[in-house]
Specification:
383 residues; alpha/beta; Rossmann fold; 6-stranded mixed sheet; 3-stranded antiparallel sheet; 18% strand; elongated
């Protein structure tokens, strides 16, 4: 198989950008070697289950410092109980705490009135378009002397007494936040983070680490969540880092920096930046990324590659002639009367015309992809 060109760890380490961080070795973890990582404004870590994505994220936090990040794990959130404790591990409370830090830093005279702020968070949540579901935040008012006596972390546990308004019952019904689904709770966190992005000062660095943001969400809400994170990442000194093994979320993020996370034979987590491609940028396909990262051997990626080679050679018959130099005659099929073509061309035609007869398997698709890779490589269509 022609190996995809990718930026290895040693290549990343050679990058002199200030955005390169060196993730340290972690005890009792799959992070057994120092890993250089260059974080862009929006970075995706994609890999199979148990590839070490969570270990990598936690190691990044240890390097950057927990006070500089907001971490939303993939584990289930127990929002109500955590909001009433001083636990720093709860993402909901951590996001609120950092929101308050920015507010208090930016407020010359504390009035204790957070009505407008909470209204903005409600509006942010409404933008996700969850049918007949709204967020209602009830603020508590503190005078200045109370603010001076309270630690910012304590305020975070008392400032919000909120509920979700469900309109499916014929009238507004308040539902405690810990009684709604995890998808809604994660959207609430994102609404809070959006407000952080709006009011933060430019000089304050903000790193948001979001594990598997796609879980618990309907596809249309995945897209809205993705778009909101991308919009936030466009602000100065903001970095969004997400992990995923969802092909749809990869499709949404295909124009951003993507790392393949995997384990070597010793069980150590490694990363490759997915940059070298058999398809040029204008042809870039999430089908290719899924094939490279997840090993998804899809007909759609074969079709993407075939179309690119066809654009270079001037027609599908020219592509078929090149493939005939590689593929065996035993695999040839007759898609048109009295015309035999290679198996790869047959698959391409079946994808285009959606016939009822499919006389090939995954191994044939994988072989076709490898053969097209060889043509692209041998003819120098990629650098």
């Amino acid at each position: 198989m022609v190996k995809i060109k990718s930026k290895k760890s040693e290549d990343i380490a050679d990058d002199t950008s200030k955005d390169v961080i060196f993730v340290p070795v972690q005890e009792n973890s799959s992070i057994r070697n120092e890993i250089p990582v260059k974080l862009s404004s929006y970075t995706v870590f994609a890999g199979e289950n148990n590839s070490g994505k969570t270990n990598l994220i936690k190691a990044i936090i240890s390097k950057i410092g927990s006070d500089k990040v907001i971490y939303i794990p993939a584990e289930r959130i127990d929002a109500l109980s955590e909001m009433k404790t001083s636990s720093k591990d709860d993402p909901m409370r951590d996001a609120v705490s950092k929101l308050l830090e920015i507010i208090l830093d930016n407020t010359p005279a504390i009035s204790g009135d957070f009505g407008e702020l909470f209204k903005n968070i409600e509006t942010n949540f409404s933008s996700f378009g969850v049918a007949k579901t709204n967020l209602k935040l009830n603020s508590k008012v503190f005078d200045k002397s109370e603010f001076e006596k309270m630690l910012k972390d304590s305020i975070a546990s008392k400032i919000l007494d909120y509920s979700v308004i469900d309109q499916y019952y014929g009238e507004d019904k308040k539902i405690a936040v810990n009684s709604v689904g995890q998808g809604i709770q994660r959207l609430i966190i994102t609404a809070i983070i959006q407000e952080i992005g709006k009011i933060r000062t430019i000089g304050r660095e903000l790193v948001i680490l979001f594990e598997e943001p796609e879980i618990y969400l309907h596809p249309k809400l995945k897209e809205k969540l993705h778009n909101s994170l991308v919009a936030l990442s466009l602000q100065q000194n903001v970095k969004i880092v997400v992990t995923t093994h969802d092909p749809y979320f990869i499709e949404l993020a295909k124009d951003n920096k993507i790392y393949h996370v995997w384990r070597d034979d010793s069980g150590s987590t490694c990363i490759d930046e997915v940059i070298g491609k058999f398809l040029p940028k204008e042809w870039r396909s999430f089908n290719e990324i899924n094939y490279r990262v997840f090993g998804v051997c899809g007909r759609d990626y074969l079709n993407d590659m075939y179309g690119y080679v066809e654009s270079k050679l001037g027609g599908w018959k020219s592509v078929d002639n090149e493939l005939a130099k590689i593929e065996t005659q035993e695999k040839q099929r007759s898609y048109f009367p009295n015309y035999k073509m290679t198996m790869t061309s047959y698959i391409r035609h079946e994808v285009h015309h959606k016939t009822n007869e499919v006389s090939y398997g995954p191994a044939d698709v994988d072989s076709g992809i490898r053969n097209l890779e060889k043509i692209i490589s041998d003819k120098g269509y990629i650098s």
